[in-house]
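QA checklist item 7 of 12: single-chain prediction sanity check.
[x] sequence parsed
[x] length recorded as 391
[x] structure emitted
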Amino acid sequence: MLLLALDTATPAVTVALHDGSRVLAAAGEVDARRHGELLLPTVDRVLAEAGHKLAEVSDVVVGVGPGPYTGLRVGLVTATTFGAALGVPVHGLCSLDGIAHASGLTEPFVVATDARRKEVYWARYADAGTRLTEPAVDRPADLAEQVAGVPAVGRARCSTTPSSPACCGRARAPVRRRAGRAGGPEARRRRGTAPAAPAVPAPARRPGAGQLQGGHSPVSGQPEAPGRPVELREMRWWDLDAVLELERELFPEDAWSPGMFWSELAHARGPLANRRYLVAESAGRILGYGGLAATCGTGDVQTIATARDQWGTGLGARLLTALLAAATDFECQEVLLEVRVDNARAQRLYERFGFEPIGFRRGYYQPGNVDALVMRRPTQTSSEAPSVQGT
């Protein structure tokens, strides 16, 4: 037996190799925003340290959360891919249960991990092997009375090893997430819900949602580039250099990495595709792009961006129309997004498309500590979506 264990439900990427009786090698990297880039190199390092090859693995175990969906899906998708490629079983394990087992405690305690946005995921345990409650998510202040006097273990911000007991009574201040990139579809309503098993990985969502950068234009019907038709088409890997250049220009503080885009595109094709990524192109130039993820009947606008010289032309509205049509194709019953509360132009655009406010995320956009307005729109058929003229 050679068991490969992965977990990306916390700010750490954790990998271990076990032979059924002992841990042969283990490694962890702490970076809440680079799970997609760190996981595979960490797997390679652990296998090399143990003197084994991936082809020798007989089972894969993956942490299924609770955790921020942006990182969690990296482990789920990777484990499922390993299982399919190697022809070995994949087992899902509640990430809090793994931390509880590592604690070795024989008395009642609480496991808590950082849920970001000033919240924690948590569950009660009778001992290291017995969970008493389902995982939940709450603000630390709301938990104080419930867990008073009970030991707590988990991942604090300062912890460097996934299994190290540490007080998790505080949650890290939220990292600013750019428009269209947020935690998991249901996370805005109840942070901490995770897929029950990795057999069919739920699609990931990116941090933030719906803050249309640049293209906060009304549905004007104005052509994006007079005299030059603008085509919306599927984003492909060869577009990434141009997309990344535009990304860094528009979002210098929190631009997506190449690995993040590659990871998203990996789920945009094939029988289990759950992404739709588009680019707007004219005369060989990428003028804008947008992406949507779908999971459990919910679509999430991942990102929309247009070049600065396209602001006010209606290109952003065209991209949003196409993403809503994609949500219909994915049979979503609703589409969610988030937008800065001080971005009135974007809010007006989304209202034109039938989005309605359903709540706030306090201090969601950092730096600046700006609140996010969460908006929701029931899915319509493609023919019912607002039309935008122009090509």
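[x] summary fact logged: Residues 111 and 153 are 5 Å apart (CA to CA).
[ ] second reviewer sign-off
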